[in-house]
Amino acid sequence: MNFKNIWNHPKTSAAGLLIAVASVAGVLSQQGVSLGNVGTGTVVSLASALATALLGLLAKDPAAASSPASTPATTQSAAPASQQAKLGAWMLIALVIPLPWMQGCTASSVAENIVTWTPPLQSAVATVDSTAALLAPADAPIFTAATIGFDAASNLLVAQAKAYLANPSASVLAQLQNQIVTFQQQVNTALLQTAKIVNVNSQQHALAAIQGVGTIVVAILSLVQTISSKAQVAQMATNSSVKLAAVEPYLNEDRSAQIVATHYNEPVSLARLQVAHAAQAETSAGF
Question: Is 41 strand, coil or helix?
Answer without folding.
Answer: strand
